[in-house]
Amino acid sequence: MRKAGAVFEERACGTLTRAGLKLLARNYTTRYGELDLVMRDGETIVFAEVRHRVRAGHGDALASITATKQARLVRTAQLWLAAHPQHAHRACRFDVVSYDGPIDDARMNWLRNAFDAA
User: Fold this and answer.
1) Domains and CATH numbers, the chain
2) Strand order, beta sheet including 44-53
3) In angstroms, rounded to a whole number, what is the distance separating the alpha carbons of residues 12 and 55?
4) Cβ–Cβ under 8 Å, residues 12 and 98
5) What secondary structure letter does DSSP report for 58?
6) Tens-digit pLDDT profile for residues 40-93
7) What is the pTM for the complete model shown?
8) What is the DSSP-derived secondary structure letter of residue 51?
9) Are 96 and 8 within 8 A, CB to CB?
C-alpha cells in the first residue's frame, strides 16, 4: 500500500509543479501526522494531502479526509511553519489531490482550499 501511495504522491507533485507550484518539502512527519507535500503557490504555502481509493464503497478519496484527519494536518502544518519561520508570515491553504479508481486508470481531482484551519 505504501508503494501505491508513493506513486500517487509523485503524480500529484508533478501535476502541482506543472501548474507552477514549487516543492518545499515532502513527507514531513511529526508525532501528530504527516504532510504529503508542502508547496509554494506564489506567496501562499500549500499543504497538499494526497489520497487514493480504488473503490468508493466507503466514499471517494476526498471523503476520507475526516475532521480528525483535518485537525492532524492543521497541527502538523503549524509545526512545519514553526520549524520554517521564514514562511510563517505567508498565507496558507490546504489542498487535497485525490485519485479514485485502479492505479493505472485513476481519476484525479485537485481541490484547492479543501478545508480551513479553523
Assistant:
1) 2-115 (3.40.1350.10)
2) 22-30, 33-41, 44-53, 92-100, 107-115
3) 19
4) no
5) T
6) 999 999 999 998 877 654 555 566 678 899 999 999 999 999 999 999 999 999
7) 0.89
8) E
9) no
